[in-house]
Amino acid sequence: MCAASAAHAQTDPPLHRLQLAGGIAFFGGASLGDADANLRSSTGTDPYRLFATSTRLASAPALDLRAAVDLTRRFGVEAHALYGHPEVQTEISGDVEGAPAVTAVERLDHYLIDGGILVFLDEFRLKGWQPFAAGGAGYLRQLHEGLTLTEEGHLFYVGGGARRTFVARTSGFLRGFGARGDVRLNILSGGITVEDKSRSHLSVSGSLFVVF
Amino acid sequence: MRRAVTLLVILAFLTPQSAHAYLHLTFSVGSTQTPLKWDVPQVRWFATDRAVPGVSASQFQTAVAAGFATWEAVPTASIAFQFVGFTSALPFDDDGISTFGFDAAPDLDRVLGATSFVVDVTTGEIVESDVFFNSIFTWSTAAAGEAGRFDLQSVATHEIGHFVGLGHSALGETEIRPDGGRRVLASGAVMFPISLGRGITADRTLQPDDIAGVSDLYPDGGFSDDTGTVTGRILRNGRAVIGAHVVAFNPRTGALIGGFSLGEGGAFQIGGLTPGAHVVRVEPLDDADVDSFFSPAGIDVDFQVTLSPQLVVAPEGGASDRVEISVRPK
Hints:
heterodimer; A: eight-stranded antiparallel beta barrel; 1 helix; elongated; B: mainly beta; seven-stranded mixed sheet; five-stranded antiparallel sheet; disordered N terminus
């Protein structure tokens, strides 16, 4: 027990201190839905398809920022922001007059702002890396190319990761320094989409943090 | 004192045997092209007291009134109509009243109906418009349509589109029949110039292209603020393509709205779009006779159907950046 306490003191950020983290994320792509461009058929039955489309949000790197506080040795809270510049890609195929298939694209400005809780899993600590589980909710904001139109939505996420504090001090302005890695499943609804249903995006990130 | 002139407009709705989205009818006032439109709070119309086999005068009036109600119900447009009464006058009489009615025109054996206008030459305002339905064909007012007969309400809805100032839409697909006529495979607008065929009632219901067209002419209900416009140019080998049919498709809503590259340098604009990203498709005007839409002089149909490699965003209450779409010769 004593050894465990010593490990906390040396390898975890001090309680109730602000941790700021910045890093790189990779936001996974996801299908936004399929839609056919249909005319009314002269037979009055099935629609007449002019062409078909399938739209997805492409995966892209993103900037990842966090602010966190450990409330207890088991629980913490954090706020998180992610900014990326992914493409929306619409594959257009099956044109009734034989137009060659193309993938039409636009680039978005993609923001996620969320908050949630962290549950530290000391019992699974490995070589100084402290695992944690995370969950929360947030706000989605996407700006179409040219910044002429904004679409909003929200997200829920679950995930986890591990962190390691390389330096921890009990006094001074900077109380620690470390690294963390996160994996998340983001459930997004609203925003730019074709089908009005939620969709899941995986994201991974790696960041460095400092403790004040 | 109003000076008026009768236009030589015969906007015909053709039978399937024949042969800004939406196209607005325009009239030259001085050096500017002015959209043809009504400028009265309520447009008054009369129905002829003529019956044809299968359709009484009363049934005729009811079907036409239903067509008017369809246009009147568009929430983003403000235009209203009033049925005044029956008349013995014939359509196309220059008599100061707008008359809808049957008439026999055997020489127009491919024309189901047509619309004419009397226009104030100083303002472009419509002061009279008549619509005739060709009684050489067999007609029906049955609720679900009737095999072998043209649905009167569908054709009336199309002609009322002209009556309010809309031209023909090119949102449709046809094929050439062995006898040289055209067969409609599909259409995406009531204002497509060729009927879907006998027994079909689909044209009783306006499509997004029709709604955008009438809303652009008579905007109401936040139409201008709540919709967006896609703008661009069509080029072939760096030179303007005039008369290309350009269609914007919103994958989220499924709406198809068309326009034409009739502006300087092959410019086009398609308004009335739900804000968001659109797929843009360009095709030559080859699914109906070019003169069904506008004067064929200078219209270029020698290029391949092309899909834009760029999604074009229609911003709310504004216009997109101008997109340039290059097409290749056939």
